[in-house]
Amino acid sequence: MAGLALLRRLREPNETRLGLSTRGARGRAVGSERALDLWESLCNSEAVHTGLVQDLDDTVLLVPGIGPDVISDITTNILREPLIEYTQAVCQVYGIPLTSDIPSGPLWNPRTHTWSSNYVHLPVINHRKLLLVPKVLVRYKMTHRPDEYYRHYLLEDLREEELSSGSPLVQILSDGRRRVTKKSLMEKYGTGKSVLVEQTLRHPEALERYRGQKRMPDAPLSHLELSRNPTIDLPDWDALLNAVLTLTPGRSDASQYEKAIEALLYALFYPALVNPISQHPIHNGRKRIDITFTNVAVEGFFHWLVLNYRAPHVFVECKNYGREIGNPDLDQLSGRFSPKRGQCGLLICRSFSDRDLIMQRCKDTAQDQRGFIIPLEDSDLINLVEQKRQPSGDIQFQLLQDRFDYLIM
């Protein structure tokens, strides 16, 4: 009963404040009764015994009693320790005070497959601890959805089966076409997870197709989808842009410039580029990258970039210079590239006195196979913001595409 013991350590997390409750975030332990229900659902599941269930997402489709809320709770419990570390890092960046000696809750150790607990530093709001979640991970719906799987995958296979056998469900239309309606299929086979299991055992290829389609994750929620009040929750583009443009070029404002660029680019390029890391150390700290973004794009320019070039990360160097960008600045950024880290980056500066010369130097770098650098100045940032302000937003980033095309043509 080791599995039951593991389930009993779970609890319904309220630290993330992502659930819905009319009386505030309460949460409750899974406890012996709920843990036993989950354990019995898994033990009694034909999908589990026959090997149809291969991962946690499959249980939403095929195991009675397990739905999105249960999966969300289990996932948060498993990820609690990295979420604590993420929360602490964000609070350090934004100067949010932390309270010491806060009970961590269950912490999962993937190496030993055991639970533990500890006392940690976390923000406390209204006497309740708070756990931050990267917004790129948040979804309103599970990726795997039983109704979607049944209607668009299983029923398609069942329809072909009925057509091939010439069953009574086949209708002959006036133009001679033959059809089987989904309504008639559902009336014959029924609905519910037991039906999904029964028919998936007969048509396992339907589940494989569904899994294959779901290997490409849904796009992260946009700024608008995440906002509770679009009039106040969307990025303040004027403030973000002015924080950059109003700084005086020169060494004295270099740190502020880097922070302002990070905030602006994160808002501009989310949800394609996420998890910005400032002063990212490489080579055991002998070198640092001003800003490193993780490229998780599923559409648009940055998706095209990661499909065709080495771009798991996109690197940014910020030059708050009152002078022209030169070869040493390009060499500095290209020296941060590597086949593993990525070979694409942005060089941000205040202005170009000779744009053609800068672009040619970047093209030389690309043709020498030292990486791809897109240079941007203040006027380019203004252009990108104006495109992002449009109702549909700009995920193609044509300006970036045009400059990249110049590097490779």
Describe the structure.
The chain is α+β, with helices and mostly antiparallel strands and 409 residues long. It has 3 domains: 2-137, no CATH class; 146-214, no CATH class; 226-408, Restriction Endonuclease (3-Layer(aba) Sandwich). It is 47% helix and 15% strand. The chain contains 19 helices and 13 strands. The strands form 5 sheets. The chain has a 5-stranded mixed β-sheet with strand order 9-10-11-12-13, with helices on both faces. Strands 1-4 form a two-stranded antiparallel sheet. Helix 7 crosses helix 9, helix 7 (146-165) crosses helix 10 (204-214) and helix 9 crosses helix 10 (204-214). The longest helix is centred in the middle third of the chain and has 20 residues, at 146-165. The protein is globular, with a radius of gyration of 26 Å. It starts with a helix and ends with a helix. Residues 25-29 have low confidence and may be disordered.
Short description:
The chain is α+β, with helices and mostly antiparallel strands. Helices cover 47% and strands 15% of the residues. The protein starts with a helix and ends with a helix.
- What structural class do the secondary elements suggest? alpha+beta
Strand content: 5-15%
Q: What is the terminal separation in angstroms?
A: 63 Å
**Oligomerization:** single chain
Total of helices: 19
**Strand tally:** 13
